[in-house]
Design a protein that fits this description.
- The chain contains two helices and no strands.
- With 60 residues, the chain is mainly alpha-helical.
- The protein has a domain of 34 residues.
């Protein structure tokens, strides 16, 4: 019984970690999409600013 519970917890943790990583990648893709928007409108500028907020900083 104890082994079955530990295996179940291990599987749930694995799925959770992979799901979290997939979510982070999707957020990064969304930020890149927003940063690459073209136009000079207020909404477009706000979208680009939001996209920069989602992307990790690349200083160095």
């Amino acid at each position: 019984m104890r082994v079955a519970v530990l295996v179940g917890i291990a599987l749930l943790m694995t799925v959770g970690v992979y799901g979290l990583v997939a979510g982070i990648v999707k957020i990064d893709d969304a930020g890149l999409h927003l940063v690459q928007r073209e136009g000079d409108g207020v909404l477009t500028k706000l979208q680009r600013l939001s996209g920069r907020g989602l992307l990790p900083s690349r200083r160095g």
